Amino acid sequence: MLLGDSGVGKTCILMRFREGRFLAGNFISTVGVDFRTKVVSIDNTKVKLQIWDTAGQERFRSVTHAYYRDAHALLLLYDVTNKTSYDNIRAWLGEIKEYAQDDVVIMLLGNKADCGSERAVRREEGERLAREYNVAFMETSAKSGQNVELAFMAVARELKYRQSGQKDENKFSVQDYVREKQNGKPAQSFTQQQQCPQCSTN
Ligand SMILES: Nc1nc2c(ncn2[C@@H]2O[C@H](COP(=O)(O)OP(=O)(O)OP(=O)(O)O)[C@@H](O)[C@H]2O)c(=O)[nH]1
């Protein structure tokens, strides 16, 4: 399930992951909730992900709360060019604590990482917040595709391991997996051509 303030890029992240393209142009806010599926392959096993996109707008909050309980994983987004969306993450985590299952997998994503010159939240601030709440973290860009696949696949992998009962054996940790992928060869390195043209010329 995708959560976060309105406009942080939840629908675009989902679109990038599912269809490999960026939804440019007019911003159309999600109404209530919407869902899409995608079949991915993890260690040669096909896994069907059901991904719920939620409205970030406050007025839909009571609708979206009803879906938290059934979520196995939550991708919580803020927009690195919007400090308020970052500041609101603590409130989102409070709602998650209140409405979601205790063992829900949470990943914090700082989206719009392509917008270098408009950045209002440093990467370290995202890392610090994630450490404080003991959740996995990475910066993403729905526009360039940076880390989008990695975010979904890391979560899918964690869920698969949990389901197969391997969690107790400590065989997989989403945080370690993300760290390993990012410290080694970045899953999708951020090349010059991939940069948002608008931002890179600023
Ligand atoms: N530069 C840049 N723009 C982005 C990125 N992701 C989303 N956007 C833009 O941000 C705006 C909002 O994106 P949405 O995906 O609709 O936001 P949302 O979080 O789903 O919003 P709600 O449905 O209202 O909750 C759109 O104009 C997108 O084009 C990104 O990674 N980089």
TrEMBL record:
Catalysed reactions listed for this entry: GTP + H2O = GDP + phosphate + H(+)
E.C. no: 3.6.5.2
Biased composition (Low complexity): 188-202
Organism per entry: Acanthoscelides obtectus
Protein name: small monomeric GTPase
GO MF annotations in UniProt: G protein activity; GTP binding; metal ion binding
Cofactor or coenzyme needed: Mg(2+)
UniProt family annotation: Belongs to the small GTPase superfamily. Rab family.
Record InterPro entries: P-loop_NTPase, Small_GTP-bd, Small_GTPase
Pfam family, one: Ras
Keywords for the protein's UniProt record, in alphabetical order: GTP-binding, Hydrolase, Lipoprotein, Magnesium, Metal-binding, Nucleotide-binding, Prenylation, Protein transport, Transport
Classification via CDD domains: Rab26
Swiss-Prot/TrEMBL GO biological process terms: protein transport
Record region (Disordered): 181-202
Broadest EC class assigned to this enzyme: hydrolase
